User: Fold these one by one.
Assistant:
Number 1:
Amino acid sequence: MRRARGIELGLALGCFALALAITLAAWHARGPAPARASLLERLVGPFAALVASAEWVRADLALREGRFGVFCERAETALELAPSDPQAWIYYAHQLLWERTSLERGSARELRESWARAGIELLGRAERECAHPAEIWVYEGGVFAAWAEIPAEERPWPGDTRELRALAVEAFGRARALGHPKAAMFEQALRERLEQSDR
Amino acid sequence: MILAGLLRLALLRALRPAFCLLVAALLAWALATSRVPSTALLAAGSEQAPLWEHGALRASAWTIAVLCCTGWLGLQALQTLAGWRRRDVDWMAPRGASATALLCSSWSGLLCAALILGLSTAAAVEACAGGGSASWIEGPRAFDSPGGWVGSGTENHVLLATGALPRGTRLRLAFAFGSGGPQVHVRAVLVDRPGGRELARSEQSVGTHGELELALPDCPPGAELRLSIGDPELRVYHDAEAARVWLPVAHEGLASLSMLARLLLDAGSCCALALGISGWFSTATAVFTLATLALLVLVSGAGAEWLPLADLGDALHVLQEGRVPALPGLPRIAAAAALCAGGLALGAASLVRWRRER
């Protein structure tokens, strides 16, 4: 009886050691951790990515039904669950920066500017929380560069063309510093445009 | 008919300290961490934003309460007959007690537990939300007609089918399949039919789907809604079946009362069905059957609103906006009563057969 218990205990300890070794190996293989996981992410544990995918499906359904507030709530929950994927942040920011600020919506300029500010603030959060902030910097640089080409009266951002190009150059520069392969090219192109407009 | 000892036993077994502590911890976490993101508040607008803030608390707390209570009480009901089969009941019920009395007593105990848990949730939620402001309760369908296309230069006229409406009522219209451009600009004007006096007007851009809401003054019966689109090249479908009237209520806390009523109906039906099913199947098969039924009902679409748990998703959507879900209607109550009676009859029949076999 005592021997059987000893074998059971040994097996349990062996399984525990194996699980610990696998977890540590996976931890090292994942590379540098982006940021501390949220409480919700830690509570859901290994199912966080799966639950986040389901939440993104629900968010998309709300978006298609025209319930944008509900879309925002579900997108935030999904990002809290799995904040590492930069594409998820970019998808959410895209809705705020382009869809909500669109002239087609017929919204007042103040409201369009509020959405643009909310989108840029979201990208700021993404830079701190996602696993590859360089992708976020490149996207942000692209947004500022595109806004610089829009006529001032249609633009959802209060800054002038030069200021927007300077912001884009700064964003691409940060992405380059983080090792993004195309950021240097974008930065160079924008810098040239900035110098041309200065001349 | 009701055996007080058996009722008390069912109540005490349902309200085990470990379960109560777990639900309390989950509720505390939900109430402490539920926040509406600033983007959702921006989408809601300054007028609706405070309601959304309270709505997030209510939606998260009631999701936990309804799912935990219904699931746990259903499990307790599933174990009841299995316990009786192990001769657990004889010492606590008189020999002459009928099968119906035994079942009704246990079921009433479980329902009392649902009431206590629901009231505690409502008290906790309202204490945290602290919203004493006015809101709107989901009213009846706005139109009898099925809807139709708006556009191609024509104006669409639909009659309001609700009778007179008080000041402050909101009329929410639904649109779909906007085509011809990325956004379709819809204009809605509500007029008093005999005189043609304009009562309310609103405009909104609609994409694939969209909603438009009109704030109404005192609205006489038979008012007419005129829908039109700015660009004659574009068109959009007016989904009149989805249009709802939202009636003003003085206190948004009425939402918790509506959810409490839903919880009692859902828990009552689930417990009765669990008692009935567990009388004829093993506990494992009964759990599987009940879980499958619950899942089917939860994911079923329109047309099944009268079933328990079926309208939970819609009610939570309404809560999320800080508004009040409609109180359960007569068909819903009748369906719950029928399910309870059916489940209890099924359980009583199994008990009678089991006693005869003994």
Note: Strands of chain B lie at 135-141, 148-151, 156-159, 170-179, 184-192, 197-206, 209-215, 224-229, 235-238, 244-249.
Number 2:
Amino acid sequence: MSNNEAESQFDRFLDEWSRRDFLRGMGGTLAFAAFAAGGMEFLAACGGNQAPTTNTQNAVRGGHIVEGQISDISNINPIFINDVPSSLVGYLVYSRLLMADGKGNLIPDLATAVPKVDSDQVTYKVTLRDAKWSDGQPITSDDVVFTYQLMFDPKYKATTSRFRAQLEQYLASVTNPDPKTVIFKTTKPYAPFEISFMNIGILPKHIWEKLQPAEINSSPMNQVPEVGSGAMLPVKWDKGSQYQLKRNDLFWRGKPYLDGYVVKVVPDGVQIANQLKTGEIDVGNPDLSQWDSLANVETINRVSYVAPSFDYYIQNLDPAKTPKAAIFGDVQVRKALLTALDRQKVADKVYFGLAAPADSSVSGAQWVHSTPKTQYPYNQSKAEQMLEAAGWVKGADGIRAKNGVKMEWELRTNVGNKVRETLITVLADQWKQIGANVTTKPVQFPQLVTQLSQSRDFEMILLGISEGLDPDTTQLWSSKSIGGGALNGAAYKNPKVDDLLDQAVQTLDREKRKGLYQQIQEVLMEDLPAPLVTYPKSVWGISKRVKNFNVAAWTGASPRPWFKDVYVVDGK
Amino acid sequence: MLAKFVLRRALAAIPVVVGVTVITFFLMHSTAGSYVPGLALNPNLTAKDVALLRSQLGLDQPLWIQYLDWTGVAWVVQHLGLGSLLVGANEATPGLLQGSFGQSMVDGTSVSSQLFDRLPNTILLTVTAILIGIAVSIPLGVIGAMRRGTRVDNALTTVSVAGVAVPQFWLGLICILFFSVRLHDWGLPFLPSSGLQTPFTGGALLDRLAHLIMPAAVLSFVYLAIWSRFTRSSMLEVLSQDYVRTARAKGMGERRVTYFHALRNAVIPLVTLVGLELPGLVSGGLVVEAVFGWPGIGLLAYQRALAYDYTMVLGIVTFASILVVAGNLLADVLYASFDPRIRLA
């Protein structure tokens, strides 16, 4: 088959996929199943490059906003938070020491300034600003120390905070010499410390100290706390339906313009689009398939930007786990496979244009992102030549083989994520064009996680990762992170990468650290253990009556430093 | 006599409930691997974090111990001073035997509070749907029987077949598209497309009814289809009975014959059919709940099953199986009291 023919065949294939257009008209049966996988990814935060501006000149006081989310909150206590809606509400209710701005830079919250590490490289001195809990009590260093003890002190071992294992490893002590000062000492120089661990909401000691460590896990205050320190305070939680909040007049940033806020559970992204149209909700993340149809809605503004996340496929390189490692073990094959992918077209068709082709191993929303020298632009004939050169020759059935190993494998992703289910079919088809027989199989998310992080009995998995604020990717690429719950499912081992990753987390100088991550990106782009396909975008529909709702990189579903200034023009 | 019967049936129900929970428990665990409930792929979580969370949730214990802990047997054993036999150094928690469904593994909320908060929603939805179904299907069935073979009858037949054939989720989405989005586009009053009530301003009876009507109508469509067919054939059968002919022969008006003599006898078997839907009160509306974001029990069970929230799913399954057993028992007792020919034994 000539290159042209193959290409046009691929075109037709993609066109067929995008014929899902008819679903836009009828409400999207397809997306019906999408609610199943929704909300499972950790903090699918949003990224962007230009900071929107805040203008409160004509701001109106009063009124409320309804935000649509496709899953309910689960636990808004900062020491437990593990999903998007909970993080969203948790931020509205609790202030923290530091937070991130739209670009992912640290800015002070309850702290008066972002602390500078001492010359010993392990001591951080935080000064607190004047702020009050919603019951009028002052927020003091006692509250801060107490909050960290919950996650760190052996006394509170029965409290199941997901930060405990890491804090035990990295935090040596947290003390308060006076009510306005907190001193953190880390066990060793650890660059992610501020970003990862000072960005956690602070709890009121006078409320929570009354509970036993184990009682904290199941306290109703994890969902509806009595006392908060953020812009909004809980009113009620109608399970599975809505979470209602009211203005906190004692908020230290000043009284918010809005009287109330509701996070409403909406079944899926298509319904979010519908309800944006009818005005039942004011803001929300519509399904990608609905993006175009929202363009004609007069009452809605659309906002989109590259989110700090990526979709990537993991090739199992471990011969002890799969015989297919004989295919993926050859770096020339890995390069050929990536070269065979038309990622621009994938972004345009599968993501309805709401994604960018990936060019590195971290997303563009990360401050360490750089574009490595080596790139693999789509070139099908070159990919075939690379495979030929590597000794993979087509047999009579059109499938390549080498030393008796056929070039065929199974590509898995998680059930219910329609974009990914489409994506694996498209990837399989593109690889078929160059003589690889790829079958696809959607798997339940928990099984997929187990296969990736524990049993590692897979051939190839496509998944998405939502990046954390800190650029440390030890979990993804270090040889320490193979199995045992860590995410290096490819079993990628490169001592140079291990070394660079270790150095980078101990390098407190930002520029030096960035340099190290750039080196890592270069190496990963040469080795391609698990190549990135796309950087998906975050998409928002925002009612025109809502002003200053400045979602941007890192302030969309995560803490929103601009929230106080949000207002509605009609005051309703 | 009756008390003995009820007691015996209640005792017989215990192995059923235990069996259901054992199967659910081991099936869930056999497929989940080492997944920590509700935990997502998070590049900031280390293997250590995951291991610690697993041990804090007790997921690192052997399965049979986890099961005994959930049932409350482990708690009893520990309180008899034999704790180390079963759970080692771990603290056993009160379980089913102590009347506790435990806490959700995903969010730490009490399972019974989730269950009982959502139960009224599900019952409201299904009961409304059943009432709509009865109120509409009986007249339709009667009309179909009285005008057998006419265009009206054929039209009703078509609607009934459609009612059975059309998937609920599709019908739901079409309804949303028309009654919410299109009506809104045309500037007309429209129905809310999801939820129980309008945030902030809602909650009044009318607002709640507006939210209820679409899901209930969609859910009732299947009932309506089946029951109207059933009423029709039952009516046809009764209308050919001797006593109906006798009634007509006595010179009784056609209306009176139809509604007093025929219909009354025709709907008796329908009562059984409606009764069969009662266990579905809890689970019946899953698809409709999902489409309309109706916070009911079916939806909760489904979502938590996907997140491998073991305790929540077990709680719902146990609760539902107790309901089914109790429902069957109630039906048996009621039959016996209605029909003296049936004996409880």
Note: Chain A is about 30% helix and 20% strand.
